[in-house]
């Protein structure tokens, strides 16, 4: 009798209760898996020894020096050289003026001999 009432209620709603419960369980499992995948691990406390060993491993990499040299060269050519170029040209002109003055003094001193 109870089973007949449940069947009539299920037939009236259009979806059986098992399908609704199964969908709810599946949604809960998926939500749990997504939450666990997105969870970040608590930060690990590192000692100075751990940091030093990690730094040593990074430096002992054979390609480390070539990669850092290439990155430094790119940075220098892209950023630093264009900004320093006018300053270097001004310094070169000033040095040329000082050298010219020095040669003129030397010539004058030689002529006065």
Produce a short descriptive summary:
With 113 residues, the protein is mainly alpha-helical.
Give an overview in words.
The protein is mainly alpha-helical. Among the domains are: 1-40; 79-113. The chain has four helices and no strands. The longest helix has 49 residues, at 64-112. It is elongated, with a radius of gyration of 40 Å. The mean pLDDT is 81.
Strand content: under 5%
> How many helix segments?
4
> How far do the termini sit from each other?
136 Å
Can you count the beta strands?
A: 0
Low-pLDDT residue intervals, each spanning 5 or more residues = none
How much helix, percentage-wise, in residues? over 70%
Mean pLDDT: 81
What is the C-alpha radius of gyration, as a whole number of Å?
40 Å
Shape: elongated
Judged by helices, strands and strand pairing, the structural class is mainly alpha
- Order of helix and strand elements from N to C terminus: HHHH
Biggest sheet details: none
Note the topology.
Elements: H1 2-13, H2 17-38, H3 48-59, H4 64-112
Characteristic key phrases:
113 residues; mainly alpha
């Amino acid at each position: 009798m109870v089973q007949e009432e449940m069947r009539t209620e299920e037939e009236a709603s259009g979806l059986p209760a098992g399908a609704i419960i199964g969908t709810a369980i599946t949604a809960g499992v998926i939500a749990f898996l997504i939450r666990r995948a997105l969870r970040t691990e608590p930060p690990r406390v590192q000692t100075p020894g751990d940091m030093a060993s990690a730094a040593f491993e990074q430096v002992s990499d054979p390609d480390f020096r070539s990669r850092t040299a290439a990155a430094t060269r790119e940075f220098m050519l892209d950023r630093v050289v264009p900004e320093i170029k006018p300053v270097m040209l001004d310094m070169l002109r000033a040095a040329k003026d000082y050298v010219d003055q020095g040669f003129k003094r030397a010539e004058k001193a030689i002529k006065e001999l």
